[in-house]
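User: Here's a chain of 622 residues. Predict its fold as tokens.
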Amino acid sequence: MPNEILKTDANARTVSELLLNKKYQIDYYQREYRWQPKHVDELLNDLTEKFLHYYDSSHERLQGSRYGHYYLGSIILSKKNGNFFIVDGQQRLTTLTLLLIYLNNYQKNLTPSLEEIFENYIFSTLRGNKSFNLDVPDRKEVMEALYTNQPFDIINSSESIQNLIARYHDIENGFPDELKTPHALLMFMDWVRYNIDMVEIIAYSDEDAYSIFETMNDRGLSLNPTEMLKGFLLSNISSEEYKAKANEIWKKRVLSLVDMGREIDEKTEDVEAVKNWLRAKHAQTIRERKRGSENQDFELIHNAFHRWVKDNDQSLGLLHSEDYFQFIQKNFDKYTYYYNQMRLRAFKYETASPFLYFNNHNNFTLQYLLALSSIQLDDSEEIAWKKIQTVTKYIDMFVVRRMINFRTLSYSSIIYTIFNLTKKIRDLDLESLTQALIDEINNSSESFNGMAQWYLHGANKHHIQYILARITHFIEAECGANSSFPEYINKSKQRKAKRFEVEHIWADRFDYHSQEFAFQEEFRSFRNHFGGLILLPEGFNQSYGDLPYEEKLTHYIKENYLAKSLNEKWYEHNPEFMRFNANYSLNFHPHIHFSKSDMEERQALYQRLALIIWDPERLRVP
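Assistant: Prediction complete.
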């Protein structure tokens, strides 16, 4: 029997009612802030779609009060000694706070600014003590840095702090352009405060709060969409023998998906597998992003795919008992199997097939959808994996081209492109698939010309490190060296783990380069150009970063091939490297000094390497 709950209060609250001048604390035993990029992407996409359903640029501000509401779930609080402690809902409230900080920072940079005051939603003064409304002492410094838009060093920081910085940048990079006009932004800011609702449940002891939490999440757990779809499909199989066989297939596959989810620390892999399968193979329509648009196949499958299958049974060919059995035995079993295998490989670097890993590192969650769309029911395992290799290699090319052209990879900015491509390559044979993807890249407006001016800025350090890691690894692998790509992008906090950082070849010393630059700002801008960056072990900058280039050069010979290539000694007895340089008609040569012209040469060299690594013709290679 559950424990008796003495008293609770439950009320629907807007973001304004929850966060304006309200203080919340988190007990020390609460888990870290662990939202990942896909969670932020989904939230931004959901909020944008809901808001744009009502928004019109002709609306007066007061008309926003008639816009519909968005339900973000519940928050369970324990009230102790007049203070509120979050038992459940920390992840959502934290992300909402990050969104409010971003909106606050963005509107201040508009000319003129909107002059909206978000301060009291983010932090406030209580009895003379100024603190963040989500009051977690360990996070105070990083939240202050985000609020004041200042850089923050995450080295040796906790998981929560690293995720706070990363998710803020996800919001920054993924915030849709449709909402950035002053009028749309103002209406959206109002809508976030007054039209996003959560159910606030207050208990007056920890025991009661956790009893509610347990009941909602365990004992009273509703069937998820996968279980409801299973019930619908099995109920339409008339043969008890076939029904039992289909049930065994379903249980076995779902169990393997759940086990895989535990391995990669994700809880809903069975739901994600079915969602990706149905979207990849059967979705024909997607909602337009304009006011009044209705959800279509793509959104309906996301929201409740069990209902969508039921409503589309005839178009899915589900007419007779045998059809329902085959839908499980062939379709469900095959496509969720490949989803399972792709997810596992996405978290483990394999030299022979690294592209799932690359795309997962870049948080490109749509790769599974696109890869599944190309696989036919009668494809052999060999053909299916060749298709997966081809599609995921294409995605890597697509991602890199967007990176170097300063194009966002947010869900909302690419979903229409990916959905249309999903339909275009659906069920193609391998040869047709390869040619279609090559044509897709060759017809793209995003080329490597953008790399000539590519540079490091506040929000693209992840992209810079990825491209440098790929270039460095490519050189070393082509030369037969023992190279580890995962090491170059490693963010592990384990004590013995080797970590690399993006480092400037030039020290941040204008006085070293005053003969070439008239102004310090011009120097600092040029210093960030891609050609002036390399990957070096963590801590190198603390030891040598302030030295003139000529003094750092002697240390580069001990590092990776891209760093070594600056030093003339590297060219003396390295036939494999010299052969690599000649085979690809590259212009590697030592740089005794590193002037502005050296930087430009190096930038052109990096661009040439990128053209080789991400050449569309490589899609023809098995």
